Amino acid sequence: MNAKPPRHALAEAFAEAVARARRKGTAVLASVGMPVAMPPSLDYFARWYDTCGDAFYWKAREPSLTLCGHGRVATLAASGNGRFATLAARWKTLIDDAVVQGGHAPLAIGGCRFDSEGAHAKHWRGFDGADLAVPALVLASDGQTHRLIVQRMLDASADVDAEAEACLAWLEVSETAPSTMHPLPEPLHSIELPSADWRCKVEQALDAIDDDRFLKVVLAREACQRHAGRLPVATLLRRLDEQASNAHVFAFARGDACFLGATPERLVRVEGGHLKTHALADSIRRDDVEAADLALARALIDSTKDRHEHELVVRAIVDALAPHTVALNVPATPEVKRLPRIQHLCTPIRGELRDGTGIFDLVAALHPTPAVAGLPRDDAMRHIRAHEGFDRGWYAAPVGWVDGRGDGDFLVALRSALVRDGDCRMYAGCGIVRGSDPVAEYTETCLKLTQMRDALAHGAIRHVPTLHADPAMS
């Protein structure tokens, strides 16, 4: 980092927090920020993940922001249908009493489960209903300036000098600890539902659509790739970052597990009372030949089925945002968003927030969007719970951050995977509407899984044997 907070700056902020804690009768958040020379990096994430376990990495595009941090001085946790309102209330309580020095607002970061009502699989332990950490240390960069934020919860009995010394000692460890970028172990096999069984699920969904139970449902599938040794998540994350150069990259470590991905989709970003989001739905593959690639993009734009499905998503997002905004800017026609292996229809949406509206209000209104659940939302969710056959956990759910000014950014956790020891559970889904072809939908999920499979590739090994999961278990 090449610069550390002066001890007196930490001690001054900590002393003020302790004094405030005595007056309030409860612990108070102290947040100290300062510019530094070194930006956040995957090397820092690797060190902190190995030494702390509770670490995160975040690299968003448009606008550029990279965050890297570790530790947890406070937790914003909630469950059930009102979880986002609970998070907002708990964050406001922390911020209202916080001592902030250095001009950088305090920050909390994390995610939540896709479904607040679904059953919890044991491999998702540690990734709770809604869980945002207030990190002990954050490195942040917008590509031009880099900053360090140190955060502590201090009660009336806290030893200010000891707390300051502990912070400085940990920063020293962060500087001197060796990098832990290790090679990826050899893959053994992948466990997943047979393609014919997943196509049957699509056919069930089409029957339900024909019976007018819903207009659209998003069905996903899980593939668990096993390896000969523990997967080094920082190495995997670096590969994802290199391969998905125009996606948002994220990782949230909880003990011996890490949820990570490189998603093309933003749920909502708020800055200075304005929101930024997009409708991202319907896709087609890329081609190495430019003329063929452009022809595929034109076919996507001209597809009646795809344009109809995309318009459903746009309309649902606009309807969800309307009560929270005074103005929305929505283009009449979508554009094509190109990723390395796939291209999507995309409609950017901008808006001005109503007074009193916060980012958690928007997350609650938008999630789950029709792009990850379906329409109508409640009917689609009931079908997913009854027929999809696995626990999505944090897959396709909001992951993101909020700061003390009320600004924040939440992504939709697509193209993602849960890594625990040598297992990598990866996820992909697609929207089913009237006219969907089960074979084509399965092919689309294979295309979406390619990003994670390529990042896991081991030397010349490209084909990983597949073991079929028991359909009775799904």
Short description:
The protein has 474 residues and is α+β, with helices and mostly antiparallel strands. Helices cover 33% and strands 33% of the residues.
Describe this structure in words.
The structure is a single chain. A hairpin with a 4-residue loop joins strand 8 and strand 9 (146-154). This protein is 33% helix and 33% strand. The chain has 11 helices and 24 strands. The mean pLDDT is 91. The chain has 2 domains: 7-176, no CATH class; 187-247 and 257-473, Anthranilate synthase, CATH 3.60.120. The N and C termini lie far apart (47 Å). It is globular. It has helices at residues 7-24, 42-52, 83-97, 160-176, 195-210, 233-243, 290-302, 304-321, 359-366, 377-387, 438-455, and strands spanning 28-36, 55-60, 65-70, 74-78, 99-101, 107-112, 130-134, 137-141, 146-154, 187-192, 216-227, 248-254, 257-263, 266-271, 274-285, 325-329, 335-338, 342-353, 374-375, 398-403, 408-412, 416-420, 423-433, 466-468. The strands form 2 sheets. Strands 1, 2, 3, 5, 8, 9, 10, 11, 12, 13, 19, 22, 23 and 24 form a 14-stranded mixed β-sheet that branches. Strands 4, 6, 7, 14, 15, 16, 17, 18, 20 and 21 form a 10-stranded antiparallel β-sheet that branches. Helix 2 packs antiparallel against helix 6 (233-243), helix 3 (83-97) packs antiparallel against helix 9 and helix 5 (195-210) packs across helix 11. It has 474 residues and is of the alpha+beta class.
